[in-house]
Amino acid sequence: MFYVTKEFIFDAAHNLVSYHGKCEKLHGHTYKVQITVVGEPAEEGMVIDFLELKAIARSKAIDLLDHSYINEIISQPTAENIARWIFERVSPELERENCRVYEVTVWETPTSSAKYRVGEI
Predict the structure, then answer these.
(1) pTM exceeds 0.70 for this model
(2) What stretch or stretches form a coiled coil here (predicted)?
């Protein structure tokens, strides 16, 4: 199996309404996102073309979140919930005979991230 990863950066504001602490106040982050696809190379020798992965990720998720108030998109926009939301948005577009989305990782800060994968506990 091969794992192909593309990174994205976006800026957005949010607040955590079901949290008691400083993050319940409106604030912003420069988020980093990694989308990883797992699979075997197709006829052209690639699991997925990086340009195609980039276009799908941007149109289905990243561009919608960039410079947004994420609470208008995701009701409790924790890093965990953002990772799941991105995974669910891009997965149908990236499901192929030879590959599928493996995981999405969202960094809220350079040292704090959350990963989402289907079927793991």
Answers:
(1) yes
(2) none
